[in-house]
Amino acid sequence: MNKESMETTNTELILIRISGLDRPGLTASITEILSQYEVDIMDIGQADIHSTLSLGILFKCNEKDSGNVMKDLLFKASELGINIRFYPISAEEYEEWVNMQGKNRYILTLLGRKLTAQQIAGATQLLADQGLNIDAIRRLTGRIPLDERKARVRACIEFSVRGTPRDTEELQRDLMKLSNRLEMDFSFQKDTMYRRMRRLICFDMDSTLIKTEVIDELAERAGVGGQVRAITERAMRGEIDFRESFTERVALLKGLDESVMKDIAEHLPITEGVERMMYVLKKYGYKIAILSGGFTYFGNYLKEKFGIDYVYANNLEIVDGKLTGRYLGDIVDGKRKAELLQLIAQVENVDIAQTIAVGDGANDLPMLSAAGLGIAFHAKPKVKANARQSINTIGLDGVLYFLGFKDSYLDERANR
User: Fold this and answer.
1) Given this model, what pLDDT does residue 155 score?
2) Could you confirm whether 40 is annotated as catalytic?
3) pTM attached to this predicted model
């Protein structure tokens, strides 16, 4: 609507801002008065912080009615014990507001055991430096207990941001530096239809879904733990080729009894937050895959435990109940993980932008890069430096917040 058309129709645009103690029926009381004058609601927003209401309504009304509307609203506000302010909005201001709708939208998620003013100030200043405007803030986690020593305390705030960053890569780097310095996690995503409709999530297994590298566990039982751990660390840091390291490590397991695998599987240390995360993902219809450089035997154990849909990992050759030190089939390395993610997406008829990948090692980087949302989880330095999102401060259920889940949406079992 331009200025001329507003003058022709003799209408006014008025913004009201209401604050006060929140209680049931307050919004209904205000809008009931507006309905008596047949006004058009152009925009409305409401927030509740510690039982304090903040309500904004932009409406269009006939010029002849505006005085009576404001008078009736003032009487109602006095009756309800709330504060109300009126702001006339010009046609030019309204046009500017409408034009803002075409700007890019982003979501910045901050996550940690707790969130401090310093962390929020740092992140929001980076947004301001890039010319971005925050138009909504919401807390995704439940209210934080005063006793910070309680187990599994977590805090997450989501910022809805509008505008076009001056330099997206610079913003990403600055957020990563800030998160390292202030011990928090972040995700900065473009707010598109795909972000709200993720459908496939692929996990690394060792040091992601479980708090160990299974090959190291097997090596300990075989008496070659030190040798294998040294090779594993070099591979995860990206210092040596994964295929080379895998072949060397498997060869050292020759002669190990098959029964050892069953015992290790039954005592796998599950990463914090996995049960909650899996429950929520299954409940909301996500397809879940394990894409692992580890072993199929243990992936299948987790598949049965959590109802996972796909497992792709490496098969150890077993002859007469003993490991031969060889493997069967192709190695699932970094390149293969990325290929499998894309293949499963095709099978499930899921756009690649709707996929998520989570991992910790250098061999996960191709998968993290290929996915619509790649998340480094308690990752090695090289992986964290190259990932666009990372979780280092809490458990794996932190993934849920990067997907936009709010604690209050989840049932009691999921909130454990």
Assistant:
1) 92
2) no
3) 0.82
